[in-house]
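Operator note (shift B, R.M.): manual run for WD-repeat protein-putative transcriptional regulator requested after the automated queue skipped it. Running by hand, logging everything below so the morning shift can see what happened. Input copied straight from the record, untouched. If output looks odd, do not overwrite the archive copy; leave it for review.
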Amino acid sequence: MPPRGGHGPTWTDSAPTIRMLRYHITSIEWLRISPFLSLRTGTPRMTPACIKPLYLKTISCLLLGIVFNSPIPVKAQHDFDSDIDELLSEVNSLLLNREYAELNELIAKTREQSAYSINGTPLLTAIYEHLGSPIRTTRQTVVSINDRKQVLDAWISSEPSVGAYVAMADCMFTLAFEHRGGGFASTIPPARLVPMHEALEQAEAALDQAEAYAADRDIADAGIPLYRMRVGLLTGTDRETMQQYLNESAKIDPWLQPPIRAMCQYLQPRWYGEEGDLLAFAENWSDEMASQTGDYSYAMVAWGAFNSRDVTHFSEDGFQWPRMKRGVLQWLEQVPDSPMRLGGIAHFAHLAGDRETAQAMIERLEGRWTTGTFPDFASHERTVRWAFDTDSIGDSLLVAELGPKRTTRVSVLNEGKQFIAFNRQRKATEIIAYDTETGDESYRRSVWPERLTFVSDQPVGDLIDIGMQIRGRTTVLRGDPETAEFVIIGQSDGYIQSLTATEDGKVVAMSDSGGNIKFWLIEDAPIPHEWKDALPNGTSSVALSPNGDRIFAGCDQSLRMWSTESRELVHTFETITPRNHSVDWSSDGKILAAAGAGNKIELWNAEDFSKLGVIELSAEFITSIEISPDGKRLVAGTWSSSVPTKPGQVILCDIKRQQVLKTLHGHRMNVHEVTFTPDGRKILSASDDGSVRVWDALQN
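Run finished. Output pasted below as returned.
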């Protein structure tokens, strides 16, 4: 039975100030340790540290740390699994040089010791994956995998072993997935399914041989049940059998993560599970294994569920942080200095709002971070700054802490009583609305199995326009986010860069990553009009005139206006801004504004296109601007490319006097989006720090 879906297996009071100062010092002066695993003992062994003089750098970094109020890592650490790189290189060399006896001996030693890397990677699994497909970090092809198969065939013919057979199973499983491709089973051409199942049959045959060989020699190898589970995912093995394989793996090593991850993937709704299956499995399996591993199993299932986005938040009737916390701390005891585990616990503590635990983990990290947990420095920095932040709200009225994901857009709903926060670079599976007065979650609605890619900056009454990826195309829809009932407006081939509508909803406009602008006249016809290559190098932002008769758009040093009635280019503006990132049109139709790289906001008369003036800010880059509903004020959000990031600002300006009224402080990182509530009394801002803040827009 082919799977029904899924993708390939890829797996401030004084006390805080003192803690932060201590952290700054240790994170700058920490000793670089290069751990590697001794196969004789099976335990991590540390080499002597290498110390470099950092006197001037230490002082400057410490001062920056005090200014920016957050710990600073010395450098990005991408090599915390370097302790296994040498081992895998040796494994590959032995295989290619046909030194099979030595290779089998190395695998046997690793198996006996249940060895792990400093980051907790089971070395036996890493060896099998490397032997089966040594180029996992690059684009694989059927040819390259078949080439590896020939090398493994030579090993099996010359000196068969459990390791040789399991490595072949990995190779054939990898080939099966390459034939299958990604996406849901219903989208896979039959021509792909035939070679996929042929490869899976060869994988099963290799595992049968491995099992027989192991039984004859009384060898317990966790790779056999693990690959039974991985192959079972694609062949549609029944749940009882999958559980049996998991039981066999747990008897060998109850702390192994890969079999638990395989079961988690199997139970995902897009594969064979139903809603609630992952939670039930986490609770039941953890209870069964409690005497050996405590709540470790619960924590690993929760970890996998969050990473796959089948679960997005802790709740009373879902995964609960206290139990997951117990499990991850028990897991940490196995490898106490694992940067991946320490960082991961800090990440989930951030998601749960547990600052104390996040602080403890970050202090133990001593400035290190790994891409295995944080994909980039900004992600690490976001959690660090949150963990060591105080409860002070700065100049804002309210702070809604939304977790460890950055927020790039905020759109108001229901006359400003609610807002939707969104990150367009994270393929969201839910629409989440928050209360503007309290910051509390109002509701969340799932849009799975589709992926939400964009949210309009202009609501239409209680409705909102959104962008979604449906069958590989960007689709624009309109609907009620609370009921999640949407109707299709139209589609586009490019990725949405900007999406807006007139207040009455009669005109919708979008720009895409290819520099195209498309608009729909809702009442006239569903067929849109599109300007191909409207602006060079893509289109960053579009704004509609109040009655929808004109479109104002900008990108780089280009600002242009088109007529939605005549379909003609109306005007090209001369701008001093080298890279325009945000444009807006006043609600009375009289003023145009644009800003981007640099510190200037340019203003024009929307009727005769004469230059009204320039507002100068103290900013490196202006990410977002919006004119107030009464047309008298303008708000801007700022961004900095410095490392560590300077806190972004929300700047309120007077349009007539062309000057700054107030600079609002409080965000910990860059500001991506700013918007007024419909009554003009409040400003909302979305930030890279993972929060939305609400500000008083009427203050002088």
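Quick read of the result: Residues 398-418+495-696 form a domain with the Methylamine Dehydrogenase; Chain H fold (CATH 2.130.10.10). The chain is about 35% helix and 25% strand.
Leaving this for review. - R.M.
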